[in-house]
Amino acid sequence: MPRGSRKPSELFKKVLRIAKKELVRVAKKAEAFNHHGIRGDERAAGLEKFFSERLPSSFGLATGEAIDFSDARTGQLDLVIYEKATAAPIEYGARNLVIPCEAVYAVIEVKSVLTKAEIRTSLKAASKVRALRPFKLKFVASREGGAPTDRKSYRCLYLLFAFKSNLGKKDWLKKEFARVSAVAKKESIPLDVLDRVFVLNRGMINPARSVGKIQERDGDLIFLEFFLHVVNFLRREAGRRPSLDWQVYSERSFKGWAKIDGA
Question: How far apart are CA 174 and CA 176, in angstroms?
Answer without folding.
Answer: 6
